[in-house]
Amino acid sequence: MDQEQHTPPQKNPSKDEILLLSLKLFAQKGFFNTSLTDIKEAANIKTSNGIYQHFKNKQTIANELYGNIIDSLNISIDDIRRRNRKPTEQLRETVNLLFKLTEDAPDVMRFLLLLKINEFLPEEKPLLETPAFIKIKKIFVIAAKEGEIRNIDAALAYSYFFGIINTMLSMILNGSLEKSASSYQAQAWTTAWATIAKK
């Protein structure tokens, strides 16, 4: 007698799995070029109900991703500031973190640096107005007060310094620079630091 073949019931992906798959797609294709169907296919589910269990639409997925990334960055910056007394050390550790994320979690960094978040999340605070980046800007204020950097406006110091760091990270992420992020880290630090260091 032939045994009936039973297909095991399909398991819907968890919320975290959907977030990770969506992050990868957004980072590779862009937010507007990624559809819920793309996410459904990446999650290997037959209907979109597995997504709708957790998220109302694509934008709510992006909202949660952005919130999670920003919260995680905020925790990391708090930890850096707690472990390092000097502003210079805090800046160096922040650069270390960004280069490590570029190497270990490039999709996170593509989401933050290469996508125009304000175009698809207009209600969210811009990156520079989030708690983590407000704290990073304060590092420059303290560094100037303590004489570790030139006495220039903190916003200018931030833009000089991170203009170089973020440009280099973006070039790594978009493939313009072919080596690993760590290959460029020392050079990036030296060049960025030279823009704000006391002469």
Features:
single chain; 199 residues; mainly alpha; Arc Repressor Mutant, subunit A; Tetracycline Repressor, domain 2; 2 domains; 66% helix
Give the gist of this structure.
With 199 residues, the protein is mainly alpha-helical.
Description:
With 199 residues, this protein is an all-alpha fold. It folds into 2 domains: 11-55, Homeodomain-like (Arc Repressor Mutant, subunit A), CATH 1.10.10; 70-194, Tetracycline Repressor, domain 2, CATH 1.10.357. Helix content is 66%, strand content 0%. The chain is built from 10 helices and no strands. The chain has helices spanning 15-29, 36-42, 49-52, 58-83, 87-104, 106-113, 117-120, 131-145, 154-173, 181-194. Helix 1 (15-29) packs across helix 6. The model has no long low-confidence stretch (mean pLDDT 93).
Mind telling me which CATH architecture of the largest domain this is?
Orthogonal Bundle
Fraction of residues in H or I helices: 55-70%
Apparent shape: elongated
Q: What structural category do the secondary elements indicate?
A: mainly alpha
**CATH class categorisation of the largest domain:** Mainly Alpha
Total domain units? 2
Approximate strand percentage: under 5%
Characterize the largest beta sheet: strand count, sense, and whether it forms a barrel.
Answer: none
What is the end-to-end distance?
Answer: 88 Å
Query: What is the name of the CATH topology of the largest domain?
Result: Tetracycline Repressor, domain 2
The residue-averaged pLDDT reads 93
Rg, rounded, reads 21 Å
Q: Topology as H/E string? A: HHHHHHHHHH
In terms of quaternary structure, what is this? single chain
Number of separate strands? 0
**Annotation field: number of helices:** 10
Low-confidence stretches: none
